[in-house]
Amino acid sequence: MARGRAPNGSGLQPRKRSDGRWEVRFAVGTDPGTGKKILKSLYGRTAAEVAEKLRKYTSEVDSGDFLDPSKITVGEWMNTWLRDYAAVSVKDSSLCNYEAYARNHIIPGLGAIQLGKLQPAQVQHWVNNLSPIRPSANKLSRKTVKNIYECLLTALNKARELRMIKYNPAENCVLPKKSNNPDDADSEEMHPMSEEQVVSFRNVITGTRFELIFRFALLTGMRLSEILGLRWSRIDFVNSKIKIDSQLLVKRKAGDTYRLGIPKNSEIRTLTVPKEVMDLLRQQQSEQKKLQLAAGSAWDNSLDLVFTEATGGCIPHYKVERDFKKYVRQIGYEICRFHDMRHTFAVRALERGVDVLTLSRFLGHASVQFTLDRY
After folding, report:
1. Which residues contact 173 (CB under 8 A, 6 or more apart)?
2. Are 148 and 105 in contact (CB under 8 A)?
3. CB 237, CB 266: distance < 8 Å
4. Nearest-angstrom CA–CA distance, 89 and 353
5. Got the DSSP string for 86-135?
6. Are the C-beta atoms of 12 and 24 separated by less than 8 Å?
7. What are 159-171's pLDDT values in tens digits?
8. Residues 312, 296: contact at Cβ < 8 Å?
9. Which in 23, 37, 144, 341 has the greatest CB count within 10 A?
């Protein structure tokens, strides 16, 4: 079927493909390197459908909502990718991480550079400055650097698929190698507490506002997001069971917005826990009733959370992590992170003779092999 210019001059007339679909191609910008037009294809089941899609894109250009690939910056593309691609293709927990990586690292470091002018050397320099080998009071681990880099890599791959860039300048970037320094706070390295350190830590946290959260983590090995997203309706006091089917997620855009999502790896699980854990939960129940009484009409625990702020709201992750770092410094174990209490639980469980399969299911790992490789 012959094609001609569309009446509005915005693209070509729709044509029927050999696979039965209809296609219309139109220019979305100019390649800054070659000066040639960058063409985009839209597909539909009918000619009318693709014509309508073309009108929509034309409208976006006229209203200023469309981003010309020849002018769009890395920062603008990251926001577009998060909103229109990542938001509809990844889990809530992954999206939260991507948003944090973009906001805290990618956009501050590379955001002002035009997407079509980003060079591999610029990406490598940026990665090097994220690396844990750099002297910093807040070192990023190798794993975190890798995650941030892969977020950028994925976003740029999508830009390449859309023909906004000819190649991905983040490909073949050299990531930091594993440190041989045992004191380096590399997140791929575990730093479980020794029995003596656990005793010292429990002494230091006695009477503090997050004491019960810290003790709960040591006794269950649950992730912080799972602890903060735990609900009373999932506690079975009669049979000493805890159902983990949610975690607390946060989006930081226009203020902190919290919601409950499924656990990591989608591993919904039910734990049978010892009496000490149930006693701790009963203590928390009593403490929460005191908070509710003190808050009066300001109390709002609509999510039915076990651990809350003074008025019933969600506890931000960073508050717990900040206090944790303060207390481990007091016992001289600064490289320990909140997540290392999970590792502490796992190591102690194996020492007590718990088999790997049981531990893997208890921790909610994706596979037994992961548990074996980890511990």
Report:
1. 120, 123, 124, 127, 149, 153
2. yes
3. no
4. 41
5. GGGTS-HHHHHHHHHHIIIIIHHHHTTSBGGG--HHHHHHHHHHHSTTS-
6. yes
7. 998 888 889 999 9
8. no
9. 341
The pLDDT score that the predictor gives to residue 63 is 56
| Other CB atoms within 10 Å distance of the CB of residue 90 | 15
**Which pair of structure tokens corresponds to residue 180?**
């041989």
- Bridge partners of 41? 25
Total residue count of the chain as it appears in this document? 375
Location of structure tokens 């088999």: 355
pTM for the model: 0.59
Q: How far apart are CA 195 and CA 319, in angstroms?
A: 25
Residue 223 CA neighbour count, 13 Å, CB half: 20
Which position has the token pair 């892969």? 150
Cα angle 229-231-237, degrees, rounded to a multiple of 5: 135
Neighbours of 137 (CB within 10 A): 4
In this prediction, residue 184 carries a pLDDT of 43
Low-confidence ranges of the chain (pLDDT < 70): 1-12, 28-36, 38, 58-70, 93, 131-139, 178-189, 251-256
Measured N-to-C along each axis, helices 120-130 and 142-161 cross at an angle, to the nearest 10 degrees, of 160
Distances (CA, A) of 327 to 279, 321, 324: 24, 10, 5
Q: What percent of the chain has pLDDT over 70?
A: 83
3-state secondary structure of 232: helix
* Cβ-based neighbours of 202, under 8 Å, separated by 6 or more: 214, 215, 218
54 and 10 Cβ atoms separated by less than 8 Å: yes
pLDDT at 43: 85
Q: Which two tokens stand for residue 324?
A: 């944790």
Backbone angles phi, psi at 82, to 5 degrees: -60, -45
CA angle, 199 as apex, 364 and 209 as ends, to 5°?
A: 75
* Adjacent-strand bridge partners of 261: 247
